[in-house]
Amino acid sequence: MSTFNISRRTLLAGAAAVPIFGIITRRGDAAEFGYKLATGQDPTHPVNVRAQEACDRIREATNGRVDIKLFPANQLGSDTDLLSQVRNGSVEFFNLAHSILSTFVPASSLPNTGFAFKDYDAVWKAMDGALGDYVRAEIAKTPITTICKSWDNGFRQITSSTREIRTPEDLKGFKIRVPQAPMLTSLFKALDAGAAPINFNELYSALQTKVVEGEENPLPIIATTRLYEVQKSCSLTGHVWDGYWILGNKRAWQKLPEDLRAIVTREFDRSGQDQRADVAKLSASLRTTLTEKGIKFIDVDREPFRAALAKTSFYKDWKAKFGEVGWSHLEAVSGKLG
């Protein structure tokens, strides 16, 4: 039986009677450092499963001094709301996609560059290497910081309720929801699609009411949010890889003694490795699961999409925005872009 049979809406509808976070993270004793970790993903998503395991291990390893309570499914606000909250410290930790963080830290979307990575080997070589170090250093110049290595959001695929996307030409005029992320908006506009930035917590209703024809997300997101109920096909474009940063409010992070910070980082890195494996495994199995739910999968040749993008000013424009240093870190793994 799939773990994705409980819908996001059912969970949220029942939240008033039985708060999800109350079930997952209820604690009896007051901790020396009581922090909140907010996420936008459903409780069944590997992000929340592994984050909760990290929170439990941290509480145990610190003898209860650090108690991090998990608030999944945008309970504390939309992604853009939560980014403001972690900046001002009303939420101490927040799990956010690189692509959305780029509205605040532009360098965060370097790894989201369209068709930059061909596979996971390339992704982790970049993110656990010089490119990841560069992006984390840029984030650290702000009131927030990264508390561990990047987690995995997966390669993004395109779904549709109308036309089937097989070639770049099929995207012309296609009304597609994108997150509040300049890179993804730019990519689809360059390919002549009608890109509409919409917050994640409004996505299902936007598809249901045909405000947009389609959207693009990694398969675990498509599954856990039951987007297969309002979409017919999924084109395996893998157009962008996206990850998650677990971000910390810098003041709250620095309040933790160094030994406790080391424990928190260690346990979130451990859960991050587990979550990466989860997403890779899920992405392989979900094609079968989602086919059974009625989604038609379309294998596409990615090269024409990359070639179409290269004919536009997309790569040139983003290289100018990111600068030579950041772009060189990207091309060291991706190869020449544009």
UniProtKB/TrEMBL annotation:
Main location (coarse class): other
GO cellular component: outer membrane-bounded periplasmic space
Domain of life, source organism: Bacteria
Keywords tagged on the record: Signal, Transport
InterPro entries: DctP_fam, TRAP_DctP, TRAP_DctP_sf
Alphabetized Gene3D superfamilies for the sequence: Bacterial extracellular solute-binding protein, family 7
Compartments, as annotated in UniProt: Cell envelope
GO annotation, biological process: transmembrane transport
Pfam families from the UniProt entry: DctP
Assigned protein family: Belongs to the bacterial solute-binding protein 7 family.
Name of this chain's protein: TRAP transporter substrate-binding protein
Lineage: Bacteria, Pseudomonadati, Pseudomonadota, Alphaproteobacteria, Hyphomicrobiales
